[in-house]
TrEMBL record:
GO molecular function, one term: uroporphyrinogen decarboxylase activity
Organism: Eisenbergiella tayi
Protein name, UniProt field: Methylcobalamin:coenzyme M methyltransferase
GO terms, biological process: methylation; porphyrin-containing compound biosynthetic process
One of the Pfam families matching this protein, by short name: URO-D
Keywords: Methyltransferase, Transferase
Location of the Uroporphyrinogen decarboxylase (URO-D) domain: 108-351
Entry's transmembrane regions: none
Domain of life (superkingdom): Bacteria
């Protein structure tokens, strides 16, 4: 099999010949692998099976326009992202930032309607097909990455407590904001799908460490229908596109809903929150998985042999037809030993079905 054939067959649960590797490194670990392994581009160095296609470009989009929405001014040196969300830095937090919400002081629907949401409809996207085609020529999987898709983008703007209150009270502000974010997400997703990406990656954290973030009733009222519309749209453009969905935490009650919404691959099945073997037993004939190797436990605190054992046990549970793109469940933070990263890679490359 080629890399593309192996990857697609693995996630479609029709068999595979080898186990691909993938992980995300924090800036500190990127520097370490560059210095200690000579890995200028760690995705190339470790032969990742996929690469990301760039989002729609927004030339001339001035993020400074969003400062006026903060009644309490942003801290000096804060970054403002494309949506206007502020990210304040701390010298003691390395790459982590404190999030500020540009719409948290909005009082009514009119305030939200006046907000200058990013105009992806008039952005530049010619590069997307060029990048997707180039990746395919290299036998790589082309990915459109749209994690933080509806729920998270909306609460990043409004503030989680405010948005929950709006939803619970059936406020028109919640309807407007979630619809607006969906509208923009559909523009971005359509652009990726029409560019020919193999994978589109959606996601919104809807779980916490030991419980779901909201009731199923609230999820099915506000989020599931919008996600379903988004998935239906991209699959109408390309029925073969693989739709990944990310949510950290315990989300087992939501898995049937995600399957019904059309999700093909669920990430990350956080091992500290859910038992992958049980999740795979219940749902593995209807959905595939990406992740499962704990970044709170075995990756930072286990031995290399324990890392290998976790990888092999989960691959065994998935079975010979595949259905598991095994990987660390989240970005690898500074406390993860380099030896454990190499052990994960070795475990994937040495696995025998």
């Amino acid at each position: 099999m080629t890399n593309r054939e192996n990857f697609l067959s693995l996630l479609r649960r029709t068999g595979y010949e080898w186990v691909p590797v993938e992980f995300s490194l924090c800036p500190y670990l990127i520097e370490r692998v560059q210095k200690e392994l000579g890995a200028g581009d760690y995705q190339e160095y470790f032969s990742f099976p996929w690469r990301m296609v760039e989002d729609i470009r927004l030339p001339g989009h001035d993020v400074e326009q969003y400062r006026k929405f903060y009644q309490r001014p942003l801290a000096d040196g804060a970054d403002i992202d494309t949506w206007g969300v502020g990210h304040e830095k701390s010298p003691n937090s390395m790459h982590m930032t404190y999030m500020r919400h540009s719409l948290e002081d909005a009082e009514d629907l009119e305030d939200l309607q006046k907000y200058p949401f990013p105009d992806f409809a008039h952005g530049e996207n010619a590069h997307q097909k060029e990048q997707a085609d180039a990746l395919k020529k290299r036998d790589l999987i082309a990915v459109g990455n749209m994690q933080t898709t509806i729920w998270e983008t909306a609460w990043y703007l409004r503030g989680m407590e405010n948005l929950f209150c709006d939803m619970m009270a059936e406020e028109d502000t919640a309807e407007f904001l979630l619809d607006k974010v969906l509208e923009i997400s559909m523009i971005r997703a359509r652009s990726y799908a029409e560019a020919g990406v193999d994978v589109i990656y959606f996601g919104d954290d809807i779980g916490m460490q030991q419980t779901i973030m909201m009731s199923e009733e609230l999820y099915c009222r506000w989020l599931k229908p919008r996600l379903t519309r988004l998935v239906d749209m991209v699959k109408a453009i390309n029925p073969d596109i693989l739709v990944f969905y990310h949510s950290c935490g315990f989300i087992e009650p939501f898995i049937p809903h995600l399957i019904e919404a059309g999700i093909d691959v669920l990430n990350p099945i956080q091992s500290e929150c859910m038992d992958f073997k049980e999740i795979c037993r219940q749902y593995g004939d209807r959905i595939s998985f990406h992740g499962t190797i704990g970044t709170q436990t075995v990756m930072p605190h286990g031995t290399p042999e324990e890392v290998k054992k976790a990888v092999w046990e989960n691959l065994d549970a998935a079975g010979e037809k595949g259905g598991l793109f095994v990987a660390p469940t989240h970005i690898l933070e500074p406390e993860v030993p380099l030896e454990n990263i190499l052990a994960y890679v070795e475990a994937c490359r040495n696995y025998r079905k």
